[in-house]
Specification:
Layout (H helix, E strand, L loop, with lengths): L10 E4 L8 E4 L5 E2 L4 E10 L2 E7 L8 E2 L2 E3 L6 H13 L3 E12 L4 E10 L10 E7 L12 H16 L5 E4 L17
Parallel strand pairs: 4-9, 8-11
Antiparallel strand pairs: 1-2, 2-3, 4-5, 4-7, 5-6, 5-10, 8-9
Length: 190
């Protein structure tokens, strides 16, 4: 960020009084521009032990499979955003369930949040951001073509929980793919 969105003057990077982190500050109007993590919301739509995945029609990871999800918009709750993204990307009607996974992706300043969501029916269709949508059993998932590690981690947790017959809340941190503590699929920027 170079210029103030309030007055247009150049910004300086400094620690404002009473803060402990460098922020982009406008010396003209006094506005402090905070850069905070973005929320990515989605669902894990399922029915009869199978999950609904979307093949991406957009970058990043065009052509790879993911759960329906995207960035939270102003004026909506977490659940409302997850439902909106599910409708936009998969045209799927779901009954939203409990929060299922919350994954910190610190290196790209994001938090990924997925809800369990039972499909109401099998009437779904790709939206403008999806090439296709399809149901998968665990053995049919194209693991090498999953777009993001947060998707792979959420799917693995789902099938592990399905086997024991009880769903819990899964949390974790996704490290950069090149980091020594990286886990999950090595595909994708997350």
């Amino acid at each position: 960020m170079n210029y103030c969105s309030h007055c247009g003057h150049a910004l300086t990077l400094r620690i404002p009084e009473g803060d402990n982190r460098p922020r982009h500050c406008c010396n003209q109007c006094g506005t402090i521009h905070y850069a905070n993590p973005k929320l990515v919301l989605g669902t894990l739509p399922y029915l009869d032990g199978r999950v609904l995945l979307c093949r991406r029609a957009i970058e990043p990871r065009h052509g790879f499979w993911t759960l329906p999800g995207g960035f939270m918009e102003n004026g909506e709750t977490l659940a409302e955003g997850a439902l909106r993204e599910t409708d936009e990307e998969a045209g799927a009607r779901v009954e939203i369930g409990p929060l299922f996974s919350v994954l910190d992706v610190v290196h790209v300043q994001q938090v990924h949040v997925f809800y369990l969501a039972k499909l109401v029916n099998l009437d779904f269709a790709p939206g403008p951001e999806s090439l296709e949508v399809r149901m998968f059993s665990e053995s049919d998932i194209p693991w090498d073509d999953i777009a993001f590690r947060t998707t792979a981690m959420t799917l693995r947790a789902f099938f592990d929980d399905l086997r024991v017959g009880r769903f819990g809340l899964h949390t974790g941190r996704v490290h950069p793919a090149h980091a020594p503590h990286a886990h999950g699929s090595t595909h994708g920027p997350l």
